[in-house]
Amino acid sequence: MQRACVVSILCLSTMLAASVAVRPVAAQSQYGGGFIEFLVRGVQPSAATYRPYPADLGPGMVESPTQPGYLVMDPRFLKQEVPYSGPETPGTIVINTNERMLYLVEERGRALRYGIGVGRPGFTWSGVHHVTQKREWPDWTPPEEMLRRRPDLPRHMVGGPENPLGARAMYLGSTLYRIHGSNEPWTIGSQVSSGCIRMRNEDVIDLYGRVKIGTKVVVM
Asked: Are residues 63 and 91 in the same domain?
């Protein structure tokens, strides 16, 4: 029973997004130490035994500089305006999968940059496409290729906060790929998808409002 409680609490902790408690790492504890240890055994952790481990929820999360022991989004992956010296014209979306960054090219050598999650090893790709559809809170129907790999997935899911496509989706030509939101913002900065480009919901809503049908998308 105690072990089941520990698993439930750990699963719950991974569902938190922008600011969640970091799992302490114990030198000697069957419960993992820290908050879990306190809940199960009533034992308070000591600073000499326990340390924060901010990599628990992926590279997009770091320990808060103002709240030790809590995770926040790595500032590198937050939306920001940056210099841009590439060849693409204003209005173009440039996706750098190695950097895990998406750029919306602006005038006068500037771009808006957003952190993204990209395809897992073996699912990354490159090319030039255009935005051919835009959807708010899109439904999700996993393609047959994905269902063969993951027969446990639902055949269809209506749009909403629990939908893995998040708040917005921009579809790329005749491909199965999309730029879409995510209900797992801690995966930003990771190789996690089957080829789609995922963003924080607040970022994909911002980008969605700035791009039009026909927008050029360069993936490198």
From this structure: no
Angle CA 125–126–131, to nearest 5? 105
Question: 136 and 41 in one domain?
Answer: no
Q: Does 180 participate in catalysis according to the annotation? A: yes
The active-site residue out of 11, 129, 130, 180 is: 180
Helix/strand/coil percent split, the chain, to 5:
20, 30, 55
| Per-chain mean pLDDT for the chain | 78
Residue 11 falls in the annotated catalytic set:
no
Q: Which residues pair with 96 in a beta bridge?
A: 101
Q: Which two tokens stand for residue 79?
A: 């939306």
Taking only the tens place, the pLDDT of each residue in 113-134 is 999 999 989 889 999 999 999 9
Residues 64 and 109 in one domain: no
How far from chain centre, in Å, is Cα 10? 19
pTM for the model stands at 0.72
